[in-house]
Amino acid sequence: MRIFVFAGSLRKDSVNKKLAGLISQKLEGLGAEVDFADFREFEMPLYDNDIEQSDGLPAGAQGLADRISASDAFVIVTPEYNHSIPGPLKNAIDWISRIRPYPTAGKICFLASAAPSMVGGSRAVIALRPVLSPMGAWLSGDSFSLAQANQAFDDNGGLANADIEKLLDGMLDRFVKVSASAQTS
Amino acid sequence: MRIFVFAGSLRKDSVNKKLAGLISQKLEGLGAEVDFADFREFEMPLYDNDIEQSDGLPAGAQGLADRISASDAFVIVTPEYNHSIPGPLKNAIDWISRIRPYPTAGKICFLASAAPSMVGGSRAVIALRPVLSPMGAWLSGDSFSLAQANQAFDDNGGLANADIEKLLDGMLDRFVKVSASAQTS
Amino acid sequence: MRIFVFAGSLRKDSVNKKLAGLISQKLEGLGAEVDFADFREFEMPLYDNDIEQSDGLPAGAQGLADRISASDAFVIVTPEYNHSIPGPLKNAIDWISRIRPYPTAGKICFLASAAPSMVGGSRAVIALRPVLSPMGAWLSGDSFSLAQANQAFDDNGGLANADIEKLLDGMLDRFVKVSASAQTS
Amino acid sequence: MRIFVFAGSLRKDSVNKKLAGLISQKLEGLGAEVDFADFREFEMPLYDNDIEQSDGLPAGAQGLADRISASDAFVIVTPEYNHSIPGPLKNAIDWISRIRPYPTAGKICFLASAAPSMVGGSRAVIALRPVLSPMGAWLSGDSFSLAQANQAFDDNGGLANADIEKLLDGMLDRFVKVSASAQTS
């Protein structure tokens, strides 16, 4: 089973990328084949219907869609900007949403977030659900938000707090089991 | 496989109950064992922590929780009140959320709505997701909102519009397949 | 200028009531006439359209609507149940929403919340906005969420943290100024 | 009194721009000084904290912020992409949110939307509220969503349906009165 993982942040040194990396490693440990991407790989302009009409889907958006399509399940680790989805991540979703059938349709999706705040970006996860559900993604019953993310990692890239790491491990275990078993198509 | 179905409306003559009945019938046709409930069966007061401390969970709330727990998956057909979840339905969810583990944990959940408006109650579905996800429910990648519900049914209780009925049929087919196959626990 | 204040919690010993009391006191200090209510004053059943048809609006719902109507502005201090509006509060809003014009129409509204968590109930505030906006309430540009509310009050009922108290004071000052000046009708 | 108006769409021939134009004209008729902008004036890249660190705010984002700051109130007419805020509009908001104090702080804000669907883009308005409220904007008690927007305009750029135009007129009248009178700072 193949799982696609990326973080919705463009900056190089992002706690969300760090969390996406940790999740990827854990999913591999659970037997999944992981396709990990850096969001910077998917270059694309701001969505503009005129551009779509004249030039079609930008290569970066098509690339992101293809990586999701080629997987059985996917993980988005999202920063929270202004209590909601980061503009660049929403922009990428808007581009790939132009493809039919949706690349996300029938894929089990695990949402995570990380932020320096005490909320850990959970409002971005909340805002993503009504966007991804109508695109046919099956949202995991779990989601993981890492609070105070600047101090949450130990030197080896694991989580400093063992209880929080155990919580994440349980969620990912369920996610892999469901993704492997569910016949969504 | 057992699926619990109810509509979050107390009134006797509700389009949501009608839709819940239709969905139940269709799920049985797809081979599921259906437990259909009238929301009026679950009598309970407004949530008050003082009442919970002195009297524990009301019988109606416990009954609703037990019916969900005894099922592999569940369907809520929700009216939309003021662009969100009806107070009585949210109240019932608040009561059952006091039980650990959550009765909803690991259950696949299909959300539907019906309303006389052109939106068909979809904002109640949107508002339910961030409530049910943290209670461990796995939200179906599909949800169904029946617009202009007052005129949507034919004389036999089916949907008057064949295209819309086909859409619903496809969603329920996927829901049954995923519920039967997914190992969420 | 008259401001109506209540907390959407039924329990006697609620941090939300405590915060509503503190806000009332501060609003009086700013020159407003405050009408403070205990949510328990407004007894009403779960919303049921059949009951409304046969018996009309319950006295408790009418009472709540009248108190809002008689004021120039209002404050709701809300607990957060399951990441959203408490069932009993939503139920009360659903009842009063049956009145035309809406009792809330054209009233400036300040939303606050308190909770033991680090989020301080802010998700209930987020969920209330799309409910109250279509009922014509003008939502203050500020809202106040009190995190770790169990330890947030000092022995005199003030806030233990002076910075947080100052933040609240600034918000209430703006709220009173706008409520006094804005010609919303 | 000065009101800034723009539509969150980049395409040239957008129903949202058309609605923004109509609103601008009506606001001028009500005595306001209107500053109308085309969203294409504000060129900016996808938000990237690394770019912000190295280059500061892009000129387009600064320009948008300046136009809001120079006004007493503002109007956003938003398309709805995937049940939420368009990526490019959220991206612009994310950029200007880096400025302190927020350019939106203390400004009365009227939200509108237009879409070919029956919902008229109202879910984008719903998604914008929890973004703009914490940025200090005072959200109008009214918002306007134009359904079936492709057929909603007459040949003179007015609304074909007189009842809907009257609804909009009432909302804008209140918006101008409140914006002119409210002392939000």
| Total count of strands of chain A | 5
Order of helices and strands of chain A: EHEHHEHEHEH
Give the radius of gyration of chain A: 16 Å
CATH topology of chain A: Rossmann fold
Q: Alpha-carbon distance between the termini of chain A? A: 15 Å
Largest sheet geometry of chain A: 5 strands, parallel
Q: Estimate the mean pLDDT confidence of chain A.
A: 94
CATH superfamily of chain A: Flavodoxin domain
| Approximate helicity band of chain A | 40-55%
Q: How would you sum up this structure, described in words?
A:
The structure is a homotetramer of 185-residue chains. With 185 residues, chain A is of the alpha/beta class. Chain A has one domain: 3-Layer(aba) Sandwich (Rossmann fold), CATH 3.40.50.360. In chain A, 40% of the residues lie in helices and 18% in strands. Chain A is built from six helices and five strands. In chain A, strands 2-1-3-4-5 form a five-stranded parallel β-sheet, sandwiched between helices. In chain A, strand 4, helix 5 and strand 5 form a beta-alpha-beta unit. The mean pLDDT of chain A is 94. Chains in contact: A-B, A-C, A-D, B-C, B-D, C-D. The interface between A and D is medium-sized, with 32 and 32 residues.
